[in-house]
Amino acid sequence: MEKITDKQIKLNWPILFFFATLIALLNIGIIITNELANENNFNLTYQFINEFTGTFTTLPLIVPLVWFFRKYPITLKYLVPLILLHIGASVVYGFSHTTLIYISRKLIYYLAGFGDYDKYYGILSYRYLMEYQKQFIVYWLIYGTVVMFNTWQESQQAKLQAVTLQEELTQARLQALRMQLNPHFLFNTLNMISATMYDNIKAADRMIANLSDLLRLTLHRDNRNVHPLKEEIRLLNFYLEIMKARFEDRLKIDLEISEDCLPATVPGFFLQPLLENSIKYGMENLDVAQIKISASKTDELLNIQILDNGPGFTGPPEDLLRDGVGLANTAQRLETIYDKNHQFSFKNRNGGGFIVEITIPFNTLENA
Fold this sequence. Notes:
Blueprint: H1 6-11, H2 13-37, H3 44-56, H4 62-71, H5 79-112, H6 118-121, H7 124-197, H8 201-219, E1 226-228, H9 229-247, E2 251-257, E3 265-267, H10 271-285, E4 289-298, E5 301-308, H11 317-322, H12 326-338, E6 343-348, E7 354-361
Helix pairs in contact: 2-3, 3-5, 4-7, 5-7, 7-8, 7-12, 8-9, 10-12
């Protein structure tokens, strides 16, 4: 029960005042209708003073009561001692409440010119016993309310912690996937530069310059898992320049990106491994590798396609997601970021080649 704080109690004062007023008015209504039913005369002013002092004098006792409930919640382990302790506390509460009622009414009656309140209240010792029977019930009602509120609050905090933990696990998983992808890309590129420098020093130099720019740009990116497609294309162009310097006229890249798709968010650097796969298998089997990357918007969805004229695949599709980094890494990142709200498919094209199709929600950084 440690979750209820003084700050939260203060925030509930308007509600407490509202319920105190409501209970007082209901009691007044009951008393008046009873007097009318018995054809008795009644003084409405007296009833207002009596009932409002009865409910409003409970409010100063709320804070110590809640503190006590937090300090000594009833548990099965110490059930009997704690119940006895609470019964004792209810007696203290009853005595304090009745004393506040008596003092407040005596003062108000005197100031209002109604005379000495003692002649209305009767023998005080019996009043303590009479009031306690009601205060005993009120004590446990307040305790039950505090317990229910605390249970609800702990449930909400547990849900929040679960969501936070899930987000942290998602971030950790995405970070692990990025750590898997980046060294893979870097080692492959460095190997390619190493193989090129003996045949074409100028081309190797351009590749190193573009790799440097690409790494500089990626290092200055924040830790967001997604960024605008425009930024993704900018990163991709550095990689394409590296590949063009290596393969020159043997590599043809066609980008068909609709202008309205550029603000859409996509996973960071997720096109590169897909493009790398197409280049790798195309160069192993073709004189000229042709690759087309397109992006279009349909309703609230972003559609991305990567097509090539390579050899396609001959084995089971599951092998492509199990072996290598490109498709498997992309599939896992999409699953982690978008859960079920995406589509990721790949297949051989009719007439030769391979196609990867991705459909994700069309979001921007403004509405992410």
